[in-house]
Amino acid sequence: MTPSLRARTYLVTGGGSGIGKGVAAALVRAGAFVAIAGRNADRLSAATGQLSSAAPGRVRAVPADVTVEEDVAEVVGIAAQWNGRLHGVVHCAGGTETLGPITQIDSDGWRRTVDLNVNGTMYLLKHAGREMVRAGGGSFVGISSIAASNTHRWFGAYGPSKAALDNLLQLAADELGPSWVRVNGIRPGLTRTELVAPVLELAPLSEDYRINTPLPRVGEVEDIAHLALFLLSDESSWITGQLINVDGGQMLRRGPDYSSMVGPMFGEEALRGVVNT
After folding, report:
1. 3-272 adopts what CATH topology?
2. DSSP 118
3. What is the pLDDT of residues 153-180, one digit of tens each?
4. Radius of gyration of the chain (CA)
5. Phi, psi of 175, rounded to the nearest 5 degrees
6. Rounded to whole angstroms, what are the CA distances from 11 to 50, 68, 78, 91, 167?
7. Do the beta carbons of residue 101 and residue 22 sit within 8 Å?
8. Where in the chain are the domains?
């Protein structure tokens, strides 16, 4: 059963594609007004057109870079002013610019990844938190990753920055609870989006995911969206500070083995930290 979020207003970052777009579509089906934010204006425009076909006037695009605090403050303000208040946020914007052995990580890419996943989350919690406190409450859902809890070798800054995101979500839940603002996180496993298409096409890697997932299928964006809507709804009104895996049970086993992808890029010796200079 889809929770009713009719006439409520939500902000979804990273809403132009992937999990963010899937969450936005689910919110529209639940009757909500949805502001989608992201860095790619063309992608946002295309997503808005698709989502609005089923809900004219209930979806709007606001280009914004979550690593720029001024952008975050502006997009939160636009969403809050749209219908008088902001009921909640689903923060999907994130990613990584680092792939490879830790001894060969590009330090600038590391900093940009931490900026995106950690600082962007802090800016959004800071400004959306203010709006939801003023409104008497709300719900913030951050999209993390199984990489926050299970080591993903050669993923560089991604796992550590998602672990920091998780801690930040719990800190905000602890601080904002007295103002009836709930903060929770979702840790997706391998989920079918445009970004993971190369993983699904590489047979050894795809098979490694399968054998390490008790429920042996790939996740779909709807799997994440269903939980996000529950956490936004009144049905979860006594749930905060939780980090919930939606990964088919993979957290019970181990992270993926990316050697079949990373090995040919860097060499087998590099995978154990050898740097030839």
Report:
1. Rossmann fold (3.40.50)
2. I
3. 999 999 999 999 999 999 999 999 999 9
4. 19
5. -75, -40
6. 17, 17, 10, 8, 22
7. no
8. 3-272
